[in-house]
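hey so i finally got around to running the thing on that chain from the lab meeting. sorry it took forever, my laptop kept dying and i had to restart like 3 times. anyway pasting the input first so we r on the same page abt which one it is
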Amino acid sequence: MKVVWIGAGRLASSLAPALRQAGHETLQVYSRTAESASRLAAVLDCPFTDDAEAVRTDADVYLFSVKDSVLEELARRICPRVGEALCLHTAGSMPMTVFSGQARRYGVLYPMQTFSLSHPVDFGGIPCFVEGCDAEVCGEVKRLARSVSQRVTVMDSARRRYLHLAAVFACNFANHCYALSARVLQSQGIPFDVMLPLIDETARKVHSLPPVEAQTGPAVRYDRNVLEAQRALLEGMPELQSLYDEMSRSIHRMALQEKKNEGVGYD
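ok and heres what got predicted. didnt touch it at all, straight out
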């Protein structure tokens, strides 16, 4: 398929080369800044523009990979000009209907993964969640997604919002905890890389255990001696202390609920 990219950020910079490798041709890259557009266009060996009115209209598919706050505006400016071309966005939190009234054929191709400009990923194992305005379009989006990923699932906008929310907990919040861990370590001159084996093993465990069963640490049994001693170390970091308290309570409540569901009580 002939593709035009609307947006040149982290997701586009990973998915666009994967589509190119799968045999799809990129005709043009648009971004609001020429710097971003030119960077991705150089990788794809295609023209670029920072003018939405200069986006060409002869592609088969227009992939919108932009901030949620500007998606509707760009859809309104671009989609009515592209006729029967397929208009897709890549957002987990935005409904497919953002294209309604603007595009004739539209849908969603949402790769659920964290992306960085400096860290390439293998798209083959990335789950992609797709949606289409009708059965024919949905089939086209599935075929496009399957050209780069072995894990393609049809999911409507309502359920995809919860998927995206769950991803925030599993990825963004977890990574923020790494950053907080690094801050605690830095205060004592300890390098963060001592945590990497622990982080890796924690991630490995949930491949074979439900997360609630993989949970360890003093909060599971609410070991007050350890909890009080650790929160005392955070006296000079009130924000971290508050998070420590709330996370510990949440871990303990979930552990209690799990034991209740199993009909098992703590000694």
